[in-house]
Amino acid sequence: MVLLPPCAPDICGKDFRASLKKPSPNYPYRTKKCRIVPAFTIQAMQKNTKVLPPPKCGVFDPLPPKPTMFRRCYQRGEFPVSIEFTSSGKRLAWKVPIEKLDFHHYLPMFFDGLAEGTYPFNFIVEHGIHDLVTKGSYKILPVVPQLIIPIKNALATKRPTVLCHALKCIQMLVTGCDRVGEALVPYYRQILPTLNLFKDRNRNMGSGIDHTTTRGENVADLIEDTLQILERYGGPDAFINIKYMIPTYESCVLN
């Protein structure tokens, strides 16, 4: 008869059977992966589950480009304008005097092209609006209500190049024509929401230099300049309407 030491386990007892259930330390211990389940469901209360996080709202995501009415009309040859290459660069060549054009038809079409971000459409739109504003400023005030929807659609694209292009044209329109700034005040509810969204979207470069500010391509700086121009040329009711839509804006006239 062999006597076991008092500390040895009982080979035929419960201790030996319990030791057989334990995994070996050299055996890889695998665990089940957590199941990803949607929130606010019965599955979210089960064990070994992980609730799916809410999706991003994407409020700053740019919209995909779409063909505009300006592009279709230009491809059909409805505009009396062409690009002329000279020794000093490119410019627009008008086939008819600008003073004889129907501004109620052509000016909203050019502003509809603000949503275009590719060449040659953006070049034609920018220089075309400049020529129409400088040579036919006295015809623009009655056309202002027809320009609101094209400006709103261009700002709603949320593409930085399109936003900069549209803001420059708004500044050109307000400063180059009499009483247009006052005529835009009732339409701030359609124009300013996108400006409120991107007003503080400056890039933090740290110790670096943001060269977009010197080239006029910084969206936040252009928005601040545009709001100041709207306040200066918008009359006595401009600031309170801008402040209503953009609470963080501070007056450049009253301060």
UniProtKB/TrEMBL annotation:
<protein>
    <recommendedName>
        <fullName>Parkin coregulated gene protein homolog</fullName>
    </recommendedName>
</protein>
<dbReference type="Pfam" id="PF10274">
    <property type="entry name" value="ParcG"/>
</dbReference>
<dbReference type="InterPro" id="IPR019399">
    <property type="entry name" value="Parkin_co-regulated_protein"/>
</dbReference>
<dbReference type="GO" id="GO:0030544">
    <property type="term" value="F:Hsp70 protein binding"/>
</dbReference>
<dbReference type="GO" id="GO:0051879">
    <property type="term" value="F:Hsp90 protein binding"/>
</dbReference>
